[in-house]
Design brief:
Immunoglobulin-like; Jelly Rolls; mainly beta; 7-stranded antiparallel beta sheet; single chain
Amino acid sequence: MMNRLLILVLLIISCNTITGQNISGVVLNATNKQPVEFVNIGIVGKNVGTVTDLNGKFNFFAGSEFANDTILFSMIGYNPLLVKIADLNKNAGNEVLLEEKTYEIAEVIIKPKKIKQQTLGVTTKFKKIAAGFKDNLLGYECGILINVKKTAFIKKVNINISVCSYDTIFYRLNIYKVRGTMDFENILREPIYIKMPKESVKDEIQIDLQSRNIVVDGDFLITLEHIKDLGNGYLHFCAGLTEKTYYRKTSQGKWETVPVGISISVIADVEK
């Protein structure tokens, strides 16, 4: 009798831990009602979320403990939107409308008179220490905190690859300014995507950003984000032991670190 009671209790506990709901819907541009792809969706600070697909659709599971939480929808070029989980299902077709962000003043870039080109970040090409993407988790991202105390104009990004097994890679490059401890804000005004076939993903990926006029003031975080279902596979970067990798498991999730720095660096003109 005691054994049966124990089994029953375990079954009840097991069932309670998996109760919740699938949250699904579609994200549309509020003006033209067109789907918005690769929108970050999740509960801030909780590792619960996903990314919309090419048709703006999304689906993820949230446990019952999150029933009263609020979901943040965010996308470069759009105003962020907060929606309570309880309210999401009230909309017809679970449609979420995002308003495009408007910029009142065009961006003006003024380079400092005294500048010096520098390579910042992790540059190792040692392949026996590696880290990166091994699971097909939408919204997972990882990167390096770049320490620069002055204004820097980012010209190029270099990524040293250890091994890639995907037929094609598709990632989003993000650049964040540091707002506080483990608190970052994306500074980009338009998304930057990295798409290339496996045969092009060799030892190094170089991304030219000069035409985008990206200027940072002080330390910044640069990451790659897994935003599309690539099927089974993995992408690993060369890594070193002198820096840390910053990562979060899904959209809007909690930032964490591991004591291995993936090989991402930038070439920038830095104010003297």
